[in-house]
Amino acid sequence: MASLISNYIIIVSISGVLNALLALFAFYRKTDFSGLRAFIVSSAASAVYTFAFALELSGNSMEQIKFWIKLEYLGMPYIAPSSLLMIMHFVGLEKLVSRKLLVLLYSIPVISTVLVWTNDSHHLFYKAIYFREGAPAPLVDIVMGPWYIVQGSLTFGCMLAGMCLILWRWGRMRRAYLRQMLIIFVGQFLPALGAFLYLMDLTPYGTDPVPVVMSVTSSLYIWAILSRGMLTAAPIARENLFESMRDGVLVMDLSDKLVDYNRAAAEMLEDLDASAIGRPLAQLFLPAGKEAVDYVMNSNPQICEEQELVWYSGGEVCYYQVRSSPVQKHDGHLAGRMIMLIDVTERTLLQEKLLQLATIDSLTGIYNRTHFMELSRQRLQEAAGSAAPFSVILLDIDFFKSINDRYGHHHGDMALQHVVSVCRQHVREGDVFGRYGGEEFVLSLPGAPLKEAALISERIRRDIEQSTFSTITGTIKITASFGVTEAFRRSISLEELLSEADHALYSSKRNGRNSVHLYGVSSITRFKPM
């Protein structure tokens, strides 16, 4: 039976070690959780209590046992009030934690400590302490004094209040907090149950089971801190505001691991639920595609950043504006960062549509004249700066008016689209292709000298001539005339080039159409491929 007591001492000692480690871990952990101090006090007090209780069990004389009991009361009276304060912070009632409440909660434990250490002179805490008969080791029983009842009432009252607060918030709690709240509830319920069984003399040889129970609760707390981010959770008092936000919000710790998120974020990120707490940001952003992952790898958590990303969600392409801002504690030290995800898909698509309307010809899908001129002017300046060749092709559909008159404007539009589809097959990367007006089209070819531009024009002319498109009334055959020029002078403007190309085009029209004419340095000539 003595070995049973020895095993019990070992378990209680382990409980003390776990509580001490828990207090140290919480003390050195960087977090903005406002109830951290109360949690540290509770853990440290539990360590003092359990270590002293282990020493009490190892005592051989009444004098030794009384001394270790005195040491127990340097910790035990402060556990329950500190736990209650921690729970109040966790459920968002930190505003009720005032100096008056602290004095009320801790004055009784302080008095209890003093009365235990001076009990022999007044017996207000213990009326008597005596050895239990038939115990396998020197175990003591007590006769409660009046202040013992006061301290016991405070302890049970704090535990009961803490459990009630958790149950009160349970129905309105987000899933991300439920496991943490369950662990805190168990951390209150098991010691309370153990203390109740002890007072009812329902434990073996009247031994106090609470220190052993604390080895279980402290292990749960350690697991919750490491895997659920328990001590980094933002106060739940902000939950209503947090949840009502239309934009997604992610709260990250210093290691860029998820601490908290709101409902909007869960709708925007795939597989974001309570199990994601503690995951790194890169893992959360991975399903969203390359831009999202690159953002995580290159962003700086210590500065405010804003970036718009292409975001893949549920097989659809979205656009999210990602705003990152550091989160600081009250003392100014960095606690992590907050990331806001703003769905700007509708706005971005509208901007793209407006840009398209401003730059794209709605009928043919190529650049309109204004945007063609803007881009080509830039390309011409670049070519002049690098002494690279630059050519322009101007083409016009032959007898287009007769197509409209004979077949109608709808088929005339189809003819324009048909010519554009043929031209696209010959447009190179870097070329600028636009509708110049009516049935006229224009291409600027950076890097292409006159001869190369002439060959491209001839290939386009031949393909247009050899292709037809069908209508209800039959097939329509189309031809086109071309004018080509090159920027032989660095100082030449785009308008001058287009004027030269137009002169060459006019020569094609005047000389039978369906041909390519070149505007050379001194004359306009018809292009004849070898």
TrEMBL record:
InterPro entries, sorted: Diguanylate_Cyclase, GGDEF_dom, HisKA_7TM, Nucleotide_cyclase, PAS, PAS-assoc_C, PAS-like_dom_sf, PAS_4
Superkingdom of the organism of origin: Bacteria
SUPFAM superfamilies: Nucleotide cyclase (SSF55073), PYP-like sensor domain (PAS domain) (SSF55785)
This protein's UniProt keywords: Membrane, Transmembrane, Transmembrane helix
PAC domain residues: 303-356
One Pfam match: HisKA_7TM
Residue stretches making up the GGDEF domain: 388-521
Membrane-crossing segments per the record: 6-28, 35-55, 75-94, 101-118, 148-170, 182-200, 220-237
Matches recorded under PANTHER family: DIGUANYLATE CYCLASE DGCM-RELATED, REGULATORY COMPONENTS OF SENSORY TRANSDUCTION SYSTEM
Official protein name in the record: Diguanylate cyclase (GGDEF)-like protein/PAS domain S-box-containing protein
Native source organism of the sequence: Paenibacillus silagei
